């Protein structure tokens, strides 16, 4: 048992929602109760901690949620938590509610706020990575990424049917402002001709090569996946249209549908493992860490590292995409 008091934990989801967050909430709740720790569910992320939107959870409160997308706790972006006054209010809530530690489920921003809060008030906090972008350093996968990837592949498969029938060149925009993991891996999985990702400027030059060698010669269909942060599909299509006005070019922006839907088995299992690990980490007196998974083993990653470092795109995966798109 932990040396510091761990009678009650608070759990919240923050930042963008991701499929599998509910599975994580369920795992955190049940693992805590299993260890005789009470659970207070905090609604609307840090906002709910400030304005005290809190409800005690028992095991039944997380029944029948593992298969649902989104988050039953709701999520929010909270400007007030960026201020010292806001964080003071959040701490006051923790004290008055008797919450000894927090489990926060979210992304980079959520952990940045958690790190500052933990430092200011000496609060034990453990993070669980929940974001479809998979852009967090220190973990092979984030909760929601696998589901979003599968959703994109399903959409691109459908787009290919019309692309092929009409001999069109399609630019499909997927989420990922700073990271191209969704774009690159969905391009491989859907057999797209190219992926434009923010990590590689050269991928734009390779697009010309694709047009010259592929689409122009065979006038077959082509699909190019563009990460949001890779320049945007509309801009890319405009550029190619100006150069090759004879081509039938279309743009499809997948948008928010990439976030929704029932989580994949992979994400449910990942979230369940991470939720249990978060409680075990708190019992083990770990604090200011993110739970990660590396080579199928659970790891504890200090917030400082998870926030500071960029997750590297694997050269070998980029290579696979290029070899297979000839
Ligand atoms: P996603 O990757 O899905 O966007 P995220 O966790 O990175 O998720 P953000 O909106 O960046 O999402 O951050 C979530 C919340 O964390 C913010 O609304 C804010 O309340 C808090 N936060 C972010 N950065 C800071 C900071 N520097 N100081 C205090 N709180 C912060």
TrEMBL record:
Q: What EC identifiers does the entry list? A: 2.7.1.11
Against Gene3D superfamilies, the record matches this protein to:
3.40.50.450, Phosphofructokinase domain
> Which pathway does this chain act in?
Carbohydrate degradation; glycolysis; D-glyceraldehyde 3-phosphate and glycerone phosphate from D-glucose: step 3/4
| One Pfam family cited in the UniProt record for this chain | PFK
Catalysis performed (reactions): beta-D-fructose 6-phosphate + ATP = beta-D-fructose 1,6-bisphosphate + ADP + H(+)
Principal subcellular localisation of the protein = cytoplasm
Sites where the protein binds substrate? 131-133, 168, 175-177, 228, 250, 256-259
Could you tell me where this protein is found in the cell? Cytoplasm
The known regulators of its activity are described as:
Allosterically activated by ADP and other diphosphonucleosides, and allosterically inhibited by phosphoenolpyruvate.
Cofactor(s) demanded:
Mg(2+)
InterPro entries the record matches: ATP_PFK, ATP_PFK_prok-type, PFKA_ATP_prok, Phosphofructokinase_CS, Phosphofructokinase_dom, PKF_sf
Keyword list (alphabetical) reads: Allosteric enzyme, ATP-binding, Cytoplasm, Glycolysis, Kinase, Magnesium, Metal-binding, Nucleotide-binding, Transferase
Residue positions annotated to bind ATP are 16, 77-78, 107-110
Gene Ontology molecular functions: 6-phosphofructokinase activity; AMP binding; ATP binding; fructose-6-phosphate binding; identical protein binding; metal ion binding; monosaccharide binding
Residues annotated as the enzyme's active site? 133
Please tell me where ADP binds in this chain. 26-30, 160, 191-193, 217, 219-221
| Top-level taxon of origin | Bacteria
Any single GO BP term: fructose 6-phosphate metabolic process
* Entry similarity comment: Belongs to the phosphofructokinase type A (PFKA) family. ATP-dependent PFK group I subfamily. Prokaryotic clade 'B1' sub-subfamily.
Quaternary structure note: Homotetramer.
- Protein function: Catalyzes the phosphorylation of D-fructose 6-phosphate to fructose 1,6-bisphosphate by ATP, the first committing step of glycolysis.
Q: What is this protein called?
A: ATP-dependent 6-phosphofructokinase
């Amino acid at each position: 048992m932990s040396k510091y008091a761990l009678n009650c934990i608070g759990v919240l989801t923050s930042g963008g929602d991701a499929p599998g967050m509910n599975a994580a909430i369920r795992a955190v709740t049940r693992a805590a109760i299993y260890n005789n720790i009470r659970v207070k569910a905090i609604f609307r992320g840090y906002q709910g901690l400030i304005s005290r939107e809190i409800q005690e959870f028992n095991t039944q409160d997380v029944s029948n949620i593992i298969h649902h997308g989104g988050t039953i706790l709701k999520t929010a972006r909270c400007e007030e938590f960026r201020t010292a006054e806001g964080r003071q209010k959040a701490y006051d809530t923790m004290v008055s509610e008797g919450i000894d530690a927090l489990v926060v489920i979210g992304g980079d921003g959520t952990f940045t706020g958690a790190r500052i809060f933990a430092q200011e008030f000496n609060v034990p906090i453990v993070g669980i990575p929940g974001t479809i972008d998979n852009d967090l350093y220190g973990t092979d996968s984030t909760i929601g990424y696998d589901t979003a990837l599968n959703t994109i592949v399903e959409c691109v498969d459908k787009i290919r049917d019309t692309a092929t029938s009409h001999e069109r060149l399609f630019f499909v925009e997927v989420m990922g402002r700073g990271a191209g993991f969704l774009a690159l891996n969905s391009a491989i999985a859907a057999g797209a001709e190219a992926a434009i990702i923010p990590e590689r400027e050269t991928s734009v030059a390779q697009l010309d090569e694709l047009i010259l060698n592929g689409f122009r010669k065979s006038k077959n269909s082509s699909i190019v996946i563009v990460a949001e942060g890779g320049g945007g599909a509309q801009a890319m299509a405009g550029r190619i249209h100006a150069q090759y006005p004879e081509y039938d070019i279309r743009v499809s922006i997948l948008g928010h549908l990439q976030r929704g839907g029932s989580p994949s088995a992979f994400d449910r299992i990942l979230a369940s493992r991470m939720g249990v690990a978060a409680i075990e980490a708190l019992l083990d007196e770990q604090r200011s860490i993110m739970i990660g998974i590396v080579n199928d083993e659970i790891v504890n990653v200090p917030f400082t590292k998870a926030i500071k470092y960029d997750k590297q795109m694997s050269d070998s995966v980029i290579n696979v995409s290029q070899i297979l798109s000839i």
